[in-house]
Amino acid sequence: MNDELKYKEQNGTSGICCEGCGKMDAPLNTFDWLADVPGNYEDTDIVEVQFKNTRKGYYRNSNKLQLAKGDIVAVEANPGHDIGRVTLTGRLVLLQLRKARLTPESELKRVYRKAKPVDMEKYEEAKAKEHDTMIRSRQIAKDLNLDMKIGDVEYQGDGNKAIFYYIADNRVDFRQLIKVLAEVFRVKIEMKQIGARQEAGRIGGIGPCGRELCCATFTTNFVSVSTLAARFQDISLNPQKLAGQCAKLKCCMNYEVDAYVEASKRFPPRDVELETAEGTYYFFKADILRGEVTYSSDKHIPANLKTITARRAKQIVEINKRGEKPETLLEDGDARDERRSSDLLEQNNIDRFDNASRNKRRKRPAGGRDHRNDSRKGRRNDDSKAE
Known about the structure:
This protein has 387 residues and is of the alpha+beta class. It has helices spanning 2-11, 91-99, 117-128, 130-143, 175-185, 196-203, 227-232, 239-242, 257-264, 310-321, 352-362, 371-386, and strands at residues 46-50, 56-60, 72-76, 81-88, 109-114, 149-155, 161-167, 188-193, 274-276, 279-287, 292-296, 306-309. The protein is elongated and about 85 Å long.
């Protein structure tokens, strides 16, 4: 019975492990789906620690501390120590090491201890200086005529080191900048160049899809995105719609492009004309996911549109190669030339909801009499009597 109560306390009454969830308020949060597997924490002494925004590191728990997801720890740094939050433990860390191109045998820094109140006081003092340091460092870079933008500043947990994240299109000689920053802030300076996508991930935000930015939640490898991905998916080449908050092409355009490329192989080339006894048909549009192609009898404007399957279109192409022409574009029993409305409000009045509410207000009671009118008549009679 005690074991059952202990299981419910740890895993909940639903039987789903809650240890691997942790807080979802941090970028790049990883769900530990191996947290409830027996012996999970004994397989490795390496833990994943996350610092400000998207910066993560892997450290060896050489002191055999009882660490769980969400614990704040002090880890080895150069110089001094840094403060971070444990985001992953156990077997899943070994899988994450592969993404970071590390091995369990690599030389990793150590976890010193769980953070003490004194450590947290220094940590909060250091974090409080980050914004002012960023503003002042931008002015210093401007005075030195450096073509760069300092996007963020991150102080180490003990306040002995500051990391300056900057964006630059060209190579920047910031040796003089480092000297000036070291004299002004009296800390060790480290410069890190990031791209526009990485800056958006560090800042965070909500995309047009209504979800958090992919670069701020799970994306770590930023692959180049081209307009060719939009062409394969028949997306309008509108720069305002294709660009994300980083002013670059949206990363999500690469998610489905492989499926579209694979599906488009089942379609005939778009520049091929279909010859039938009725006339010549030209490509108008294609619905790749439905596997349908729409052809027009006019090359420049949509006229006499007919929708057929991609299989039927390729079949007609083979028939034309033999010098023959089918009677019609559609095959027997094919009803795919039905006209589907392209306007969602074509058959509905746009103010139908207003009319419904207006009719609802005018509706009389079931008895057939309007008590409001009766009350008005009663008031008129009373007024006439008073006169």
